[in-house]
Amino acid sequence: MLNKNEYDHFMNSDQSSADAATHEYELELISDSSTMIEPIKSPPPPQQPTPLKSNDKLGLSERTLSAAGAAVLSAVIVNPLDVVKTRLQAQAAGVAYSHPMTNHTSRMAVFGPNMMFADLRCSPTCTRAGVHGTVSICPPDCFEYKGTLDVFYKIIRQEGVARLWRGTNAGLALAVPTVGIYLPCYDIFRNWFEEFSAQNAPSMTPYAPLLAGSLSRSLACTTCYPIELARTRMQAFKDFNGGKKSPGVWKTLVDVLSSVKTSENMKNVQSYRALWTGLGAQLARDVPFSAICWSTLEPVRRRLLSLVGEEANAVSVLGANFSAGFVAGSLAAAATCPLDVAKTRRQIEKDPIRALRMTTRQTLMEVWRDGGMRGLFTGVGPRVGRAGPSVGIVVSFYEVVKYALHRQQHAAS
């Protein structure tokens, strides 16, 4: 039998030997397992798509491709509203849309009192034409435009649906280079101005979109202005060619140059200057338009994209940019409508001497004298109806293509 002291001593020594054995076993287990067991690594968190930011480094070719695609889509969709707006403004400037032979004096001078002449009704199905001698003539209000919907109705009835897309070829020829210059330059200028102001004058950073939009639009308008001149003339004037093909962009520009060369008082004036007739009015309209548009669009777009956050995808980028573009384009179009009226009036002026001597201020005063405030806002409905969707389509398409290219580049890297 062991007394209590001997029993305690035996148990302590036994426990010590057991602890030592356990410690040696743990060391062996650790040394053996270190060669077999790899540490468990937690999987990386899934990457969420991020919206394209203003400082993403896309090349100029990618930006231009995006802008050109947006321009083509916009030019085709909104061209009818552009035709309607131009017709209303041209009518207010004195352009007559009735056939010249509906005037009795002109008809008698050309054909004589007994000469048979073709039907001069506003459309083959018009029931309001009255017979005057051997000619069926519609009353003057059949040829007068009374509003946006009336222009649509009369163009379709008198000239056919295809006439609403008159000037689309000029619009495409204009939109692709103009937007191809405008949007990429806006991106580049905005990034430069934001970086410069952030380092030197942080309080000026919010004005970077305004300055970038104005500068890029001025560059694009000046470069492509002759095509804009041709498009306005193609849309404004009604052709009476008896089924012949209407003049295109090139023929319209040649006619502008010919009118200068045949004018006795324009011998010492370079004829090419006529191709930039009304450029001052165009810049006076487009520079404020761009300033208002981009200074409105940027904060609205960034606010909408911030609501989406890290869950942004192509659909949300499209929706945010189209909504912001629609709002900004509509506001800018309404605010600059008087300048658009002056621009149209200068571009459709057929007297080359008067066209080169007119100024934007003189034109606005003339419009005010003729029609007052209503005259200054002639065509504001179709102009706003055109500009809102047009800016929305161009900006959203451009940004979605940029987003897709950015994601592709990110995935490749």
UniProtKB/TrEMBL annotation:
Region (Disordered): 1-23, 36-57
UniProt cross-references to SUPFAM superfamilies, sorted A to Z: Mitochondrial carrier (SSF103506)
Biased composition (Basic and acidic residues): 1-11
GO cellular component: mitochondrial inner membrane; mitochondrion
Coarse class of the protein's main subcellular location: mitochondrion
Membrane topology: Multi-pass membrane protein
Pfam families: Mito_carr (PF00153)
Protein name according to UniProt: Mitochondrial carrier domain protein
